[in-house]
Amino acid sequence: MKHGNVIVGQSGGPTSVINSSLAGVFKTARDRGANKIYGMVNGIQGFLDKKYVDLSEHIQTDLHIELLKRTPSSYLGSCRFKLPDVTDNEEIYIKIFKMLDELEIKHFFYIGGNDSMDTIQKLSYYGKISGSQICFMGVPKTIDNDLAETDHTPGYGSAAKFIGTVMKEIIQDATVYDRENIHIVEIMGRNAGWLTAASVLSKGEDCGGPDLIYLPEKTFDTDDFLTRISELRKEKQSIIIAVSEGIKLKNGKYVCELISKQTQAKDCFGHATLGGTAQFLSTLVTREFGCKSKAIELNILQRCSSHMVSRVDITEAFVAGGHAVEASFRGETGKMIIFNRITNNPYQCTTEPFDINKIANIEKKVPLEWITENGTYVSPEFHAYARPLIQAELSPIMVDGLPSHLYNRP
Predict the structure, then answer these.
(1) How confident is the model at residue 262 (pLDDT cuts 50, 70, 90)?
(2) What is the three-state SS of the chain?
(3) Distance CA 210, CA 39 (A)
(4) Is residue 144 among the annotated active site residues?
(5) How deeply is 165 buried, as exposed, middle or buried, from its count of CB atoms within 10 A (0-12, 13-18, 19+)?
(6) CA-to-CA distance for 159 and 235, rounded, in angstroms?
(7) Catalytic residue among 144, 146, 211, 313
(8) pLDDT tens-digit map of 351-395
(9) What is the pTM of this model?
């Protein structure tokens, strides 16, 4: 059965499994009889500049699909572009839909996080009021795990696995010397602390885990922070602290804003550009106690380390792409694929398409009951939630001692 032409794009910050979702969209659309499968280069922004490719010219074999699944970053390129409201600039929508009609597109897929789902919401709304027959579907992706309605998002499990692993290694390294040291590890997370909370996964029989964990969901107090370190110094030489880049003070300012009195730069979606939280706190600790302190920023390694993906995560990313195609081919539009957890032991999830209007621009945070009352750690409930998402591995396809990726990028 023929379903018309398909177009797919990727947007926002990459993950180590975002291309597995792209592979899921491509393979399912191809196998279900799509005529042409186009890829937007650099998302909707690139599409507006008429940058798109025929994906069948780049993904030609099953080996290409397997390599694509294991390739980090966004194969099609990405963007951070905010579509205006229809009432503010209808011309841009007229242009987009004219281009889609010229390509005879019947199914539009966008792989991304909250800002990307804003794009799906706006395009599907305009499609509805303009009488377009194009189906618009969102495919979830974000290491931040902050999309509403879904149990979790593809990309988070692998980032959590990386963070748990790196924290174990940092903790091991910190105990090498017989001297006092304090390590402050800065982990991504503007307003939601899912990634920083994953540092607790390092805790086990062979590792004590971080000593303190600070998430944006709780107000940060520098005096209390120093007091707790002072108490820990009485018990141990090596102290490891995990902090979200977006922890805030009581007055609502980000801790990293204390580095400079200048206002933080913002992106097109109005998000503050963060960074330097660990460095500020490390300097504060050294000044207060006179001991050695190191700031460590995991930065983009959290989202591009495809050599350490969770098999659960990469499989679910592929499934999300495939199920989005199946839903769209059934005629559904204005929705995003979500995951529903059925059981935790054994771990089982189902998927369903869900109304994009109940997802876009809504931020899911770590439940307060999963954070200790004093705001310095996470509960066993979080550990039980995150542990299934990091299970098993998918080994890279190695060539000459290094992972091989799909290289013929558009």
Answers:
(1) very low
(2) CCCCEEEEEECCCCCCCHHHHHHHHHHHHHHCCCCCEEEECCHHHHHHCCCEEEHHHCCCCHHHHHHHHCCCCCCCCCCCCCCCCCCCCHHHHHHHHHHHHHCCEEEEEEEECHHHHHHHHHHHHHHHHHCCCCEEEEEECCCCCCECCCCCCCCHHHHHHHHHHHHHHHHHHHCCCCCCEEEEEEECCCCCCHHHHHHHHHCECCECCCCEEECCCCCCCHHHHHHHHHHHHCCCCEEEEEEECCCECCCCCEHHHHHCCCCCCECCCCCECCCCHHHHHHHHHHHHHCCEEEEEECCCHHHHCHHHCEHHHHHHHHHHHHHHHHHHHCCCCCEEEEEEEEEECCEEEEEEEEEHHHCCCCECCCCHHHECCCCCCECHHHHHHHHHHHCCECCCCEECCEECCCCCCC
(3) 42
(4) yes
(5) middle
(6) 31
(7) 144
(8) 999 999 999 999 999 999 999 999 999 999 999 999 999 999 999
(9) 0.96
